[in-house]
C-alpha cells in the first residue's frame, strides 16, 4: 500500500473527483478527512467506515479561514498528524467577462484560489511544526493553462493555483514538503450527465483520446503525486486530460 499510516485531508471530497480520491487513498492505507461544505460528505465518510477504512467528515467552507484552521486541528486531534492535503474543492463559472458580475467573480476566486491558499497555508504550518515533511496536491484544471471563452473567473483562479503551486513548491522543497497540482481535462461527473448530449460531444471532441475522463483516473494521478513514487517532483502541474493541452 502506497499511503500506509498516512493521514490525508481532501477538500471537496463529497464531489466526483474528491470522493474517488478519498476512496483510493483509503484503499492505499491512509486515514482520510472528508472536508466539504456539502453534508453529503458525511455519507462518503460513513460508506468508507462501513468498508473498514478510517474516515471522518468535517464540514468546511474553504473560503473561511476559521473553518480551515478547525479542519487541520480536528485532523490532528483525530489522527495525530497531517501528511497529505488534496486541495480540490471548487465551483464552476462560465460567464463571459461582459456578463460576469463582480459578486460571481469574487465568489469564484474566493473558493477556487483563496480556498486553496488557505488550505495550503494551514497544512504547511502543521507540516512545518511536525518537521517530517509532507505532500500537497492542489486541484487546478486544463483551464489554468489553456484558455476557453467564458472561463473568465474560473480560468483566472486556476492559473493562480498553478503559480501558487510553483511558488510553494520551490519555497518548501528544502523542508521536505512537495507541492504539485493536478490539471484534469473534462471528466465524467454528475454535471456532465445533465448537459445535453451534443454539448458533451463537443467537449469530448476537444480531447484526442475521444472520451471524458473518469474521476478514478484523476484519483490515480493524485495518488501518484501524493506517494513516494513522485519523490523528485515538486512545483509542477500534471495534465490528466486525454491530450487536450497537447494539441
Ligand atoms: N469535472 C471536471 O470536468 C473538471 C475539469 C477540470 C478541473 N476540475 C476540478 O476538479 C476539482 C473537483 O471537481 P469535481 O468535478 O469533482 O466537482 P464536484 O462539483 O463534483 O465537487 C466539488 C466539491 O467541492 C465542494 N465545494 C464547493 N465549494 C466549496 C466550499 N466553499 N467549501 C467546501 N467545499 C466546497 C462541493 O460541495 C463539491 O462536493 C475542482 O477543483 C474542479 O475545478 C474538474
From TrEMBL:
Keywords carried by this UniProt record: Oxidoreductase
Gene3D superfamilies cross-referenced by the UniProt entry: NAD(P)-binding Rossmann-like Domain (3.40.50.720)
Keyword hit for Oxidoreductase: yes
Any matching Pfam family: adh_short_C2
GO MF term list: oxidoreductase activity
GO biological process: bile acid metabolic process
InterPro entries hit by this protein: NAD(P)-bd_dom_sf, Sc_DH/Rdtase_CS, SDR_fam
PROSITE patterns in alphabetical order: ADH_SHORT
Family the entry assigns: Belongs to the short-chain dehydrogenases/reductases (SDR) family.
Name of the protein in its database record: Short-chain dehydrogenase
Organism: Paenibacillus azoreducens
